[in-house]
Specification:
The protein has a single domain, classed as Aldolase class I (TIM Barrel, Alpha-Beta Barrel), CATH 3.20.20.70. The relative contact order is 0.19. It contains seven helices and nine strands; from the N terminus they run ββαβαβαβαβαβαβαβ. The chain has a seven-stranded mixed beta sheet with strand order 8-7-5-4-3-1-9. A two-stranded antiparallel sheet has the order 2-6. The chain has about 270 residues and is α/β, with parallel strands linked by helices. Pathway: Cofactor biosynthesis; Fe-Mo cofactor biosynthesis.
């Protein structure tokens, strides 16, 4: 079931309730071809960007201040700037928040590489919603989308990664977590398998899917982002298999506020 007060899962909640992303996770265990975390600008809103990386204790303080500023805050998430599950500080942060504010929804974004192994601890920390980025189910396509997985660029590493995503999503859904699948739409690279990913996500137990347009940068800096017409067509096909979330703002790793209303950066 999609949480009624999660603004990144529910279209209605998107305009009514707030979320805060805590940038406690700088390290990553894969290299996405479209990711560039070298720059920060207050006017730049995209995944992987943060003004600073903070400690778990500072994260708790940030949540306390955010709640004082806006009582509509419902969700605390860790979305980077790297891979949350590659950073021990993520679980420490989640435990602190859950202990101090047990009524808040805890959310995590992950590439899924080590999700299956981390799942017991996530459940113990009180995580109830999960976003997994799945850009392909093809080993060949994965070789184009990802530079390395676990330090390796060979086909075996890509195949193991896709298998780990499959296992992690299925186990998370079976354990009762609400799972959203994020897919970056890269024209000419993975557009031909979006419906297949939607089918796979539904079979694995995911509750909702979010198709996000490519932001041209890093290895894909010369690629064109998908047109709105293409996104609409892909969403229509995917919607046959799994509900679509269409309000994503592709937020920063330190975003805070009601996403449908504002994206307040650096005020905490």
């Amino acid at each position: 079931m999609i949480p009624a007060e999660h603004p990144c899962f529910s279209a209605q909640a998107h305009f009514r309730y707030g979320r805060i992303h805590l940038p406690v996770a700088p390290r990553c265990n894969i290299r996405c071809g479209y990711c560039d975390r070298r720059y920060d600008c207050a006017n730049e809103s995209r995944p992987g960007v943060t003004s600073e990386v903070i400690s778990p204790e500072a994260a708790l303080d940030r949540v306390e201040r955010a709640l004082r500023l806006d009582s509509r805050l419902r969700v605390v998430g860790v979305a980077g700037p790297g891979e949350p599950l590659a950073n021990p500080a993520t679980l420490e942060t989640l435990r602190l928040i859950h202990s101090r504010f047990p009524g808040l929804l805890l959310c995590l974004s992950t590439n899924g590489l080590v999700l299956s192994d981390a799942l017991p601890e996530l459940l113990d920390c009180g995580v109830s919603t999960l976003t997994v980025t799945v850009n392909t189910r093809s080993v060949v396509c994965a070789g184009h989308v990802y530079r390395t997985v676990g330090g390796s660029a060979d086909a075996g590493a890509m195949a193991a990664f896709l298998s780990a995503q499959q296992e992690g999503v299925a186990k998370a859904a079976e354990a009762g977590l609400t799972v959203k699948i994020n897919t970056v739409v890269i024209p000419g690279v993975n557009t031909g398998e979006i419906e297949e990913i939607a089918c796979w996500a539904a079979r694995a137990g995911a509750a909702v899917m979010n198709l996000m347009p490519l932001i041209p940068q890093a290895g894909f800096r010369d690629n064109e982002p998908p047109s709105q017409a293409l996104l609409d067509a892909l969403r229509a096909r995917a919607r046959v298999h799994i509900p679509q979330f269409t309000h994503c703002r592709q937020c920063r790793a330190d975003a805070v506020g009601v996403p449908g209303e504002m994206n307040c950066i650096g005020c905490l």
